[in-house]
Structure prediction request, 111 residues.
Amino acid sequence: MTVELETAWNLRSVMASRGIFQTSKLKPLLEERGVDLSREQVYRLVTQAPQRVRIDVLAALCDALECSLDDLVQVTRREAAAPVAVGEDATRGAIGDLRPVRATIRRPRSK
Prediction:
């Protein structure tokens, strides 16, 4: 079994619950907390789920929006079945059952 983690980025909904509907309103809130991001970076942060976020940006977002990290990022854990290789049958045993058959060598008959 492998474990898959799915994340959901909820910054836009947290902003909406605080009455902030424009990304330009978030930039001054972050600057008050010492985080200087460009207008484009703030827009991408709100509209797209980021692959990585600096810890000081997360702390500033949580402080500015008066929320916790759990409100911004939702993590869902799911167990997935291990992938089955092509041609592998689920009813077969381990590799020990797949030993080759020993070849027999026959000499040609002489006339």
Observations:
- The two ends are 63 Å apart (CA to CA).
- The mean pLDDT is 87.
